[in-house]
Design brief:
single chain; membrane; transmembrane; 19% strand; six-stranded antiparallel β-sheet; elongated; alpha+beta; transmembrane helix
Amino acid sequence: MIALAYLAFFLAYGLISVLVVSKSYRVSRRRYGKGWVGGWFAALIMYNLVFWDWIPVYVMYKYYCATEAGAWVYKSPEQWIKENPGAVGQLWGDDYIRPIERFSDQRQRIWYSELVYGETIKQARYSGGLLRRTERLLVDARSGDELSRAVQFEKINESAFSLGHATVRDFKIWLVIGGNDCVDESGQNYFVLDARNGKELIKLGRGVGNDNGR
């Protein structure tokens, strides 16, 4: 259904654009002898009605992916487990049942054990509303030290459709041309790298793959 809706929209938009540009060309040629001026002016207006933010979004996306996005590990899972041997064998991950703490629509906390939690901070309208910025932290609950941090930028919220809260911007699927998430030099999504780090800590905390769990 969504694909048909997009097809109908672009067909209607394309037809209207052709009619407007053609009409503007004829009027401009008849009145001023330069039909191309009116044609290009009308084409520019029709383009900007829908695609006005395409280039600004792409430019800012490339800039922030290059300057602010990334995944950083300040203390590896192995090092943290070595410093906290008593954490091995405790309840971790899905075994540790604790409600998600929602401080606001933009900030929430998920506990992986009684000693470590993950925090997500979202900015839905970043850089003048052109991008979405999301930051994820893995934190030692006792010391407050950050164990890892990841920052990601998105052009649109691709999951908004399934969650039922898509905005007008999220329907602009053409914005994702060239990528919707920031990636490293090998093409890895920064949040994927961050998730691997968290999963490794949970695994070691459960006593899998370390000397303390043998």
